[in-house]
Amino acid sequence: MQGKEERIRKKWYYQLLLSYLPVFFIATSIIVIISFVGVRLTIGNEAKRVNEVATTQMLKNIDDALRSIDHLILKEILNNVAFDKFFDLSKETDKYLDSLEMSDRIRNIIHATPLIDSLYLYRFRDQIVLTRDERIAIEQFQDKDFLAKLLQNQQQSKWSDLREVTETNVVTNETISRKVLTLTSKVPTISGELGLIVVNVRPYAIQSMIDQMANSSYSLLDFVDKNNTTIASVRDAALPQEDRLANQTHSFTIRSSYTGWSLHSSINNSEVYGFSSAIYYGYFAFWIAAIAAGAYWIYLITRRNYKPVEALMGRLEKYKSEKSLQLLGSDKRGEFDYIEHALDHLIDRFDYQQRHVEEHVKLRQRKLLLDLLEGNFVDRNDEIVKNMLEEQGQACVIVVEIDAYEHFVELYNKHDQYLLRFVVENVCYEVSQEHGIQVWAEWVEGHQLAVLFQSRESASQVEATSRKLSQWVQDNLDFTVTIGIGSPAKSMGEVSGSYERALAAIKMKFKFGRNRVIRFNDLPETEEELIVQPKVLKMIAQSFRQGDTEWPRKLLDFVNQTTEAHAAKENVQHILQLLLFSMDREMSEVSSELRAIWKKRLLRLNEGLDTHETEIELSQFYCSELNEAYEDIKQHKDEKSHTALMHRIKEHIDKEYIDPDLTLARLGEVFQINSSYLSRTFKEEIGMNVTDYIVVSRMEKAKQLLKDTQEAVQDISVQVGYTYTMSFIRVFKKTTGLTPGEYRRLSAEA
């Protein structure tokens, strides 16, 4: 028996041990493979970057060396007298001595510049070529074909592609052919009308430069001209041609913007990745050692950690032998029968707990309430639904909203907020039970509690319960609530509609105020859209800017008109925003000091649009802020002498508008100030220039006389300062869009 138990315990031990090792081997193998691939990719990318940088720098060095030759020739053209004597006939003293001096200079340039193979000058006027050894006509010059082709084609680049030249030594009479690269410079450098300077450069000198800068073991280079002819190259001579091509990778080509030649480069794989292979073998050996050490460590840890499991298995075997008869009725059944019976017992207990949770009425009622409010599908055969709609009669939804919720959030921390919401919900249940009403409630928002009432009695009980709840909150808590009552719901499908009407009733808190109980039938049948003419807003804004004493009355009339209309909160906010926009546009033309005062108030006004819940609070806030802004601006204006003067002039115009000679110049004489200064300052303070204000004052008085009296137009024109009636009629129509007679008729009809 003990031998069997020992085998069982060993079996569990080996299963535990073997469950770790495969995971360990797979995980370490994946890590090693990823690391190797990552190292290889990193080395390759870095080698590619280094190759591109080195190739670019190499081509730059070659270009710099060739440019130095170009600059040398240019310097000689500009500064050397011998060049001038050869090319410019007016400066020539003795053609033989000058040619000899020029040949010496050519030899010095060739000896001083290792890259230069040969140099000669070609003069257009007599087609003479001067080399370092001789002065010869072009017909006898061996490089005449190149010059002819050059003069015929007018090549764009200064540098030619690789070409072959033939030269005869004047001493040994030996003919030599070699490859050169040719630089051609015009004389003078801009027009080129005198001749050419031709410089031949040795390709092997460029090859020598590249050999010094490149390593054939790591990189392969090919420097070619525009015809893709090799000028210089770097190859690994130890490898055959096919092996060199196979080992190339990360090719890179760069073209010189100066010569038009290209430098092709690639990396020798065998050298670059040979290093990474060495790293790989070392890494592989380290991996084998790490796996061996890890496997041994897992063996030790498993052996140590299995000891508590082994003790537990021993106790389980002992308990099984003692309880098997009691649980199974026989000791002939195995350990799996015992485990199966224990699992069945555990499943039965779980099913019992699950049924107990599912039958928890409160949780189901809360879920059902949310579904009903949102109009989601609800099983009509559900027992709770039948009790709610059939046994309890009709339903009604109310929404309880915490007033001044922003202040509520600032006043209480999250724990206190949760506690106070719990108090409101419990009071709702208690008050409803006193009236025999069944209630289902849920906080749908942080500040809104949705309550579903069920009662056989009339809807008046719902209103009475709501008022009692509102009163209790007001008496016992530091905040108030507003309650919106929805329409009765006779069926389950009408509950969502009742909820929507309750929300609509809550929105009317803006009109009715806080701490109210608002029924759905208290709402207007249609929302009244508040429309204000732009000219009314402009008139109020101009009155504010001009410091009109009638400004507070005009603002109050506007606010009363807004308040009396049954408009939604959004509509009222929009109208107030339009007023602020119109006033801000008017104030944009005042002085910077007044504009700063206005901007400070405007910021507060914009912030107050959403912070006030009721229309009365919003209106009072706006009137107070605008009147304070008006007083601040008025006080600032009074403190400035020119502001007071402009208002005195304005008052003078209001009194003396009947004077036909009332003009800008006349006002300047009366008040003894410069007319230009008066015009500019008056517009700054009042918002319009002097002439326009005189016209406005006269037209306002004329409209009043046309509306209130039956005097002739000719008499009215004299009373408002116009000597000629036609001038008055023309200005009146330009200002109002109507003739005086049309205006009088329309005013009478209104």
TrEMBL record:
Q: Does the keyword Transmembrane apply?
A: yes
Instruction: Give the transmembrane ranges.
Output: 12-39, 278-299
Gene3D superfamilies associated with the record: Homeodomain-like
The protein's UniProt keywords, in alphabetical order, are: DNA-binding, Membrane, Transcription, Transcription regulation, Transmembrane, Transmembrane helix
Matching entries from InterPro entries are given as: CdaR_GGDEF, GGDEF_dom, Homeodomain-like_sf, HTH_AraC, HTH_AraC-typ_CS, Tscrpt_reg_AraC-type_HTH
Q: Where is the GGDEF domain?
A: 393-522
Query: What sequence ranges are listed for the domain HTH araC/xylS-type?
Result: 647-746
Q: Cite the PROSITE patterns for this sequence.
A: GGDEF (PS50887), HTH_ARAC_FAMILY_1 (PS00041), HTH_ARAC_FAMILY_2 (PS01124)
Q: What is this protein called?
A: Helix-turn-helix domain-containing protein
Question: Which organism is the protein's source?
Answer: Paenibacillus baimaensis
Q: What is the lineage of its organism?
A: Bacteria, Bacillati, Bacillota, Bacilli, Bacillales
